[in-house]
Design brief:
Elements lengths: L3 E5 L5 E7 L5 E7 L7 E6 L3 E5 L9 E2 L1 E6 L5 E7 L4 E6 L4 E5 L4 E6 L17 E3 L2 E3 L2
Parallel strand pairs: 2-6
Antiparallel strand pairs: 1-2, 3-4, 4-5, 5-7, 8-9, 9-10, 10-11, 12-13
Amino acid sequence: MHNKVSIWNSDFIKISSAKCEERCILYSAHIAYTSYENLIILSGTVFSEILLWKPYFIDEEGFSPILKRLKQHKGVIFHLDFCPNLGYICSASDDRSAILWEIDNKELLQSLSPHNKDSLNVNLVKIPLCYFGDIMVFY
């Protein structure tokens, strides 16, 4: 089964499972949020797309609809990261690009293309906004 998530409790008992309506092979995924109702899955597909879906919303057959489909890469999505506080998604592809997305409007914010890299890994990190002596203030 492709593009499926199962939820287990702390006693390793399966609570539920859901399948994205797009049942393709994934090369990357990212699970965001801590409660089941707010859980968002980001799926990086072999078709150069990032799919956003919520396993909490399922139909009678157990399928979850795609909430957003992000298309800009020209290769397989190999790495994803998500900052829910800012609404940013960062993705890397075998087309040798990294893209920073703002998910509220799916707008392409910034794109990078390395010259001599075989692959890219991307991570969103907290960057200090300002310094006060030895104190750093983060977003």
